[in-house]
Amino acid sequence: MATRLGLSLPQMRQYSIGTDVPAVARAAERIGYDSLWVFERALFPEPATQGLYGVEGLPWPDQYRSVADPLVTLTLAAAATERAELGSSVLVAPLHLPFQLAKALASLDAASGGRVIAGFGTGWSLDEYAASGVRPIAERGAVLDEIIAVCRAVWGPDPVVHDGRLAKITSAVVGPKPARPIPVLLAASNERAFRRLVDHADGWLPAGFSAEGVGAQWRRLRELAEERGRTKPIRTVLRVNADRRAKPYAEADRRPFQGDADQIVADLVEFAGLGLDEILIDLQGTARDARELADVAAEVFEKARAAGV
What is the DSSP string of the chain? Predict the structure, then answer.
């Protein structure tokens, strides 16, 4: 069976959000993409307290200077489409109040007819946490745990009850309810995060930095699920950040998904061999405008299907 393919929506500053998000969403659904995705970047610190991903000296990409809100972007896409799932990879959950986030996602799922995928991560930016975090960044794992618990409660049957550190709901009717149980997928790359995923989430959001690395993590995650007695399947959506304008690399130094459509598809073939459920392709960063983004998305999709992905 062919690997499901998703496409990132245009959120960056070269796009006109109000017109380009619906246009690209409709085009992607027409092309055949199974899902549409957003990410979260709350701000662009200048000067930055830390490097990108917390790596010292690694600069933040210039396109992060303006990134549209993920839930607003998904709402625009939901109104323009009928079939494609609507996911976040990732939404930095601890930057959001738990109850409000749960209600917003429930409302979006109800409005879209049951198409939302709640993809959460803990983030890494000290500046974003200083501006918007509900607790200090050192507590981000505990905050994510409670956010998941609040979401499950709010999305579940009434009366909703939750007694936590961040939210206390004694007994309440909370609506609208999701059209169906919203799957919670987590970004995870270490043992503690893997345990949280196995015990409390529906799926995994790996990043496609190397097929060997993702394959090793996927094997470990399945081993851990077996060790902890999980029988429910783990849904997997791999995120790949493609750069069509990257300069040529020597083969020994080449990173995946850097190059033209043929090279991107060649890498998709390699990663598809890992047996993951879905691959999310982010092409928006190096497209000049929405028309180019849609054209490249169509080219990559057609060549991927021709290659058996």
Answer: -PPEEEEE---BTTS-HHHHHHHHHHHHHHHT-SEEEE-------SS-SS-GGG-TT-PPPGGGGSB--HHHHHHHHHHH-SSSEEEES-EEGGGS-HHHHHHHHHHHHHHHTS-EEEEEE----HHHHHHH-SS-GGGHHHHHHHHHHHHHHHHSSSSEEEE-SS-EEEEE---PPPSSPPPEEE---SHHHHHHHHHH-SEE--B-S-HHHHHHHHHHHHHHHHHTT--S--EEEEEEE-BTTPPP--GGGPPTTBSSHHHHHHHHHHHHTT--SEEEEE-GGG-SSHHHHHHHHHHHHHHHHHTT-
pTM for this predicted structure:
0.96
Residue 80 near residue 49 (C-beta atoms within 8 A): no
Picking from 283, 278, 294, the residue whose alpha carbon sits closest to that of residue 31 is: 294
Hey, what are 307's tokens? 């290659």
User: Cβ distance 56 to 42 under 8 Å?
Assistant: no
Grouped pLDDT means (10 residues each) for the chain, 309 residues = 94 97 98 98 93 93 96 98 98 98 98 98 97 97 98 98 97 98 97 97 95 97 98 97 70 76 95 96 96 97 97
